[in-house]
TrEMBL record:
Tagged with keyword ATP-binding: no
Keywords associated with the record: Membrane, Transmembrane, Transmembrane helix
Pfam families: DUF229
CC per GO annotation: extracellular space
Keyword Transmembrane helix annotated: yes
Sequence intervals crossing the membrane: 32-51
Top-rank taxon: Eukaryota
Protein name: Uncharacterized protein
InterPro entries reported in the protein's UniProt record: Alkaline_phosphatase_core_sf, DUF229
Amino acid sequence: MTMSELLTKLSGRLCFHGFLSISIPVRSRQRIFYLLFSLHVIFFLIVYHRLILITPSSTTNKISANNGKSSSSSSICHIPDLNPWDQTVSKSLNIKPLYVCPKHKKNLINIINHTKLFINQTVNKTYFSGLITHCVYLKVDRNPEEKHFRDWSYTLSEPILIINGRTESILDADFVLTRCYNNRKEYFHGEYFCGYNCSKYKNMSQVQKQILRNRTLVYEYIHPIIRLKKPPFPSKIWSEKISKKLFSSNYSPPSVITVILDAVSNLQAQRALPHTLSYLKSLGLYTFQRHTVVGDGTFENIIPMLFGQLASDLQIPNLNDSRYEFLTTEILIDRKTKNRTEIKKIVHYPGPYDNYSFIIKNFSKLNYTTFFSEEWRDSALYNLKNGFRQSPTDYYLRPYWLSLYETLSYNTFSGNSNPKPCYLDKLLHFLSLDWLKEFLNIYHKTPNYPTFGIMKMNEMSHDYLERLFWIDRDLKTFFQDLIEKNLLDNTILIFCGDHGHRQHRLRLTRIGSFEVKLPFFSILLPKSFEKNFPQAIANLKNNQKTLTSWWDVYETFVNILKMVEQPHLLDPLRVKWQPTTSGISLFHPIPERNCSSAGIPDKYCPCSLTIPLDIELPIIKELAIYSINYIDNIKLKNHKHLCMPLELKTIIRAELEELHVPIKIPNDTIKS
């Protein structure tokens, strides 16, 4: 391309990728403004920490496609065909050996029949010399007296002795904390556990009691208790309403299980989970290559997915409940005198979310057994945004995780992403997988107990991108076990991330700037769906190639809900469903559309058709230098005492990308 041709085509923006550190003198402002006016160029130089490298927008212009590959046949939204193992990616990854948990730490107390505890005498003899004869369990629950937010604390019942090494079925708790002591003579009076209230210890200080506890408590572990909580789904009455011409009389409503891996992009799933994906694809897994975020973090994406609303809609301050009213202190500093003034303010926090339309609750009303779990203690959906006052699901695992992190079996660590992520002899992700497997073992043995649940795992993917490589074979084995035991026979399985990785240095590459916006998303459907709803399946298959977002996932959930509510129609294309958001059910045909139509803010839009430019062109360096000075002298003007001036070191890549005003294309394929 000649210089004159370049000047003719420049009606867009130049995107540069470089590494900068110290400032360079500004060239003539008149020359710079002349260039900008003549070329009509908007340019961005990404130089600062973890900013998104390209801010793309939807484009409808066809710019010479032979300048680069595109994964899209759409003329509305082009997304580059990205190589997950591009050399820039390989240089950014540092895959460490699997962390191995200590093998000598074994579980002393096991669960039988899902609800009974018993002391494992083999472990007792091997690791405790057979000295453990007395253990107790305490029921774990949410704290009803928590003043402000219900998801920051939990309660423990009085200790209950495990008599003769086992218990009867525990039917009034979802989680129990077990403890074993090496001082049975003084801690127990017959079948009664007196602990530190024994007469000998009554006058002890709390510090002394804590020291004694540390010396005598030799085992502590949190166990989930799973049991049937609801009556069977009225399958007979429901199936009688189904058209016998279309479906068999024993057809039952499908379960919906969603497994979310925090901060996993589509490309990262391809890199780190090849065995899992290969196995699931052999079963018919549908993967959505162009699935896109609608916000930055988990909250901004999971709210549209589960509530069908913007995250900002749930962040309205609660002015009517004093429990969400807090007194805060602001310190103002006079610039001239440097005097400090304290100002006390009352701040109203948002929450709770109990009265919002939570899609899981809608399934619960139809007699679905529901669950919600997220591993992390400090950065979970519930507590960061004030969560729910009442448990929103039948099984709500927040108390389980809170108590787990305070037991002896966990390697003490303040914060998330423990460098030794073990619970006794297991890596933490096994706890989520084991709970889900036991849950499905109870509820999916028969078709009479449909379920809807969210299982979100953080520890092995959020902070350390490379940890995901550790769990590939574990996930494959997990899904393989469920399939072989027929526990997913009538289940819609969604296996996905929530957004791409936001903290890794991978984001400083061109590919990383794209994949943060393109989370992993896939669906595995029951075989009965392919047989009974061929057109809906054909639509879903075609939609793998279209631009989708979490709004579409929400509408898919609603579409499934309508199938259960309207068994006389049942087919996802026949039930009375209309979208209430910018999304479209994945069972319906989704037209070619841009980000605006899909409900994707321009900041997160991955649509980008670019032309690579010769970095040796003089104008490229001139624009790069101007960008540096713009950042130094305008954007960082008030922060020069904190930031080093920037300097152009290398221009790695220069691209031309055309800018257009986003035009919303109506979703007119859904008819009343």
